[in-house]
Amino acid sequence: MNLTKKNLIVGLLVLTLILTVVGCSQKASNNADGKLKIGVVQIVEHPALDAARKGFVDYLNENDYKEGKDVVYDYQNAQGDMSNAQTIAQQFKNDQVDMILAIATPTAQAAANVTSEIPILITAVTDPKAAGLVKDLKTPGTNVTGTSDLTPVRKQLELLKKISPDVKDVGILYNAGETNSVVQAKLAKKVAKDLGLNLVEATVSTTSGVLQAAQSLVGRVDAFYVPTDNTVASSIQAVAKVAYDEDLPLIVGEKGMVEGGALATRGIDYYKLGRQTGKMATKVLKGANPAKMPIEYLENTELIINQDAAKEMNIDLPQKLVDEAAEILKVN
């Protein structure tokens, strides 16, 4: 073998090694233009889910994955319809997207049902294990990982008692078809019993039934509680209207619903949750295995109060809570 040919072979081997290392450090795109394609599916539009999506995209934009330059997003909304969610997920699979961001439990389930190969990052999913998305919260064992929005139900019901110490019967509104809501309702029942409260349920299946469900509780409850339920959150103004008309405190699971007219929450920041999910996504794009990445939680909670809602409900808020609030909203 002459020296020139030997040098050529060595050079090819070195080039192959370099390409292998680069390929392991960052996921190659299926797109012809070299840009990563991320399919984003959201069950419905409401402030919490919108904030989670924005947090995810913002984090990637700030960390080497700029929209339009490095990443192309396919944004899809299922409009609260599971059949739409399944269709969207199937299209993402057909398009061979590089990653799926599934926002909320129903869309995460739809995505996991159609692909076990494309990495799926989830956010705003209350209990990924109960939803059948992972085998274990610490070691998912599937192509799914991400963040949970498990809400601090106990702190929220304790908040209700601080605002209205004499409250006894609490109406809880949720969609019994949403796994995340069922999990929270079960937890609320247990917590309510510990706190000496009686939980009265009213369930819905679509946003059009929210007002009627809230009205059905009038005369039977002293207050309303709405967990992080996507269906009710989308029509929280309807619940707020009944709460205003009947002077009933309305405590909710997240800030977006307070902005929509509820009285208060002690909850998580969905924008921060989305950013945390984005951080996990960058690790997956650089080669991390979702099956080995634990589900993460946002530990810090914030007290958010709507002063206009308090006036509408004829509620005098304890000054101690007002002083403690991370944010005082003046919206109705």
Write the layout of secondary structure elements.
Elements: H1 3-25, E1 36-42, H2 47-62, E2 71-77, H3 82-94, E3 99-103, H4 105-114, E4 120-125, E5 144-148, H5 153-163, E6 169-175, H6 179-194, E7 198-204, H7 210-216, E8 223-226, H8 230-233, H9 236-246, E9 250-252, H10 255-259, E10 264-267, H11 270-285, E11 296-297, E12 302-306, H12 307-312, H13 319-324, E13 327-329
Parallel strand pairs: 1-2, 1-3, 3-4, 4-5, 5-11, 6-7, 6-8, 8-9, 12-13
Antiparallel strand pairs: 10-12
Helix pairs in contact: 2-11, 3-4, 7-9
What does this structure look like?
This protein has 332 residues and is of the alpha/beta class. It folds into two domains: 32-149 and 271-297, 3-Layer(aba) Sandwich (Rossmann fold), CATH 3.40.50; 153-267 and 301-329, Rossmann fold, CATH 3.40.50.2300. The chain is 43% helix and 20% strand. It has 13 helices and 13 strands. The protein has helices spanning 3-25, 47-62, 82-94, 105-114, 153-163, 179-194, 210-216, 230-233, 236-246, 255-259, 270-285, 307-312, 319-324, and strands spanning 36-42, 71-77, 99-103, 120-125, 144-148, 169-175, 198-204, 223-226, 250-252, 264-267, 296-297, 302-306, 327-329. The strands form three sheets. It has a six-stranded parallel β-sheet with strand order 2-1-3-4-5-11, sandwiched between helices. Strands 7-6-8-9 form a four-stranded parallel β-sheet, with helices on both faces. α2 packs across α11 (270-285), α3 crosses α4 (105-114) and α7 (210-216) runs parallel beside α9 (236-246). The longest helix is centred in the first third of the chain and has 23 residues, at 3-25. The radius of gyration is 23 Å and the shape is elongated. Mean pLDDT is 90; it is low at 12-25.
